[in-house]
Automatic annotation (TrEMBL):
Residues 82-178 form the Phosphatidic acid phosphatase type 2/haloperoxidase domain. Keywords: Membrane, Transmembrane, Transmembrane helix. Coiled coil: none annotated. Signal peptide: none annotated. InterPro entries: PAP2/HPO (IPR000326), PAP2/HPO_sf (IPR036938). It comes from the Bacteria. The keyword Transmembrane applies. This is Phosphatidic acid phosphatase type 2/haloperoxidase domain-containing protein. It comes from Sporomusa acidovorans (strain ATCC 49682 / DSM 3132 / Mol). SUPFAM superfamilies: Acid phosphatase/Vanadium-dependent haloperoxidase (SSF48317). Gene3D superfamilies: Phosphatidic acid phosphatase type 2/haloperoxidase. It holds the Pfam family PAP2.
């Protein structure tokens, strides 16, 4: 009964995270596709910061948060899930970029490898994962992901189509990986908050 209650609670957190992702994803896609670049040097500077240092701080920082938290909880499955999402994002993004899908692979600034936006993919995948385990701060995770995605259009590194594709790919990757992670524990009736039969740890879901 205890395990079933924990699984039910995680399914609810997953559902909430999914809807946060859909809402912010659609908003971000709308902005990327229809909002015009500002042409304002100050706004461009903000976009340039978010596109570079801001993106690095968000991705590295949130990975560290999840990994340290999971390590302290002794939940190795969450560490594997996080690193698995990171790895799959890299493989799929670079794999699609290498296909050079015409005409979308060309960047607005003239470079190649623009489709899809790796920044948007990784940001939204991580926001989904963070909203699953740290739901209180869902607004923060998705605001950061949306801002990073917007910055790629503002700074001419990506077109709206490229960012939209990145958002959808990131959502798909996180949804698939987390769904598989949950399904494993549901099918085995195992407790994901227990590292082994003899090691009891704290709750996975943070209120």
């Amino acid at each position: 009964m205890v395990i079933r209650n924990k699984l039910d609670r995680m399914r609810q957190c997953f559902s909430n995270a999914f809807w946060w992702t859909i809402i912010f994803g659609l908003i971000t896609i709308f902005i990327a596709l229809w909002a015009k670049k500002s042409g304002n040097p100050y706004i461009w500077s903000i976009g340039n910061f978010l596109s570079g240092i801001g993106n690095d701080v968000f991705l590295i920082g949130t990975n560290i948060i999840i990994l340290i938290w999971a390590w302290r909880q002794r939940t190795g499955s969450i560490i594997k899930l996080t690193l698995g999402i990171d790895l799959l994002v890299g493989i799929l993004v670079q794999g699609i970029k290498s296909m050079k899908i015409y005409p979308w692979y060309l960047r607005p600034n003239g470079g190649e490898g623009g489709f899809p936006s790796g920044h948007a993919t990784h940001a939204f995948a991580m926001a989904f994962l963070l909203a699953m385990f740290f739901p209180r701060f869902s607004w923060l995770w998705f605001t950061a992901a949306a801002a990073i995605s917007w910055s790629r259009v503002e700074t001419d590194w990506h077109s709206g189509i490229q960012v939209a594709a990145g958002v959808m790919l990131g959502v798909f990757i996180a949804w698939g990986m987390i769904s598989a992670w949950l399904k494993y524990f549901e099918n085995t009736n195992a407790d994901p908050t227990v590292e082994s039969k003899n090691v009891q740890v704290s709750k996975v879901i943070t209120n």
